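Input/output pair, single chain:
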Amino acid sequence: MSDVIEAAPSGRAKCRGCGLAIEKGALRFGEAVPNAYGDGESRLWFHPACAACMRPEKFLATTAGFAGELPDKPVLEGLAQAGVSFPRLSRISRLERAPSGRAHCRHCKELMEKGSWRIALQLLEESRFQPIGFIHLTCASLYFTSAEETPDRHPPVADILARLTRFTPDLGPTEWQEIERLLTPVGT
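Output:
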């Protein structure tokens, strides 16, 4: 079984990225994974935009062989290409305010002040997304930089914001202005 892009035959599947239902007839991306409960393989379903953000390599490989019409294909491929260039971007799970002052930032190792903005991170392990911690918004540019390949090149704020808005859709314009300000590296 290989990864696919197809129209959803029902509205029962939920996206593994955002957690929302994939509507009947909407295009969806299916990633083939080993079946956790037996022999063979099963599929993890994503909205195309969620797949571009969270599974960029597989999404690009699948879109290259997809013969159908994929709405916003250049935008989706741009999101996926950013994820390939900066692999840690695919770890973004959501944006939230710290409910306590106990968590440490994965980048700077400092405590996160209660009520401050933080980015939740996750990794796909054994066909499930597992939480791996948090980072400060102000640390995002450095954390998402691929230090081995491009130590002086940071991902554009727009690429980080695109993922955050996808996975945290319920914030207002003033909150997004504050978030963008905190994401912008000092000196730019």
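The mean pLDDT is 91. Residues 101 and 113 are 5 Å apart (CA to CA).
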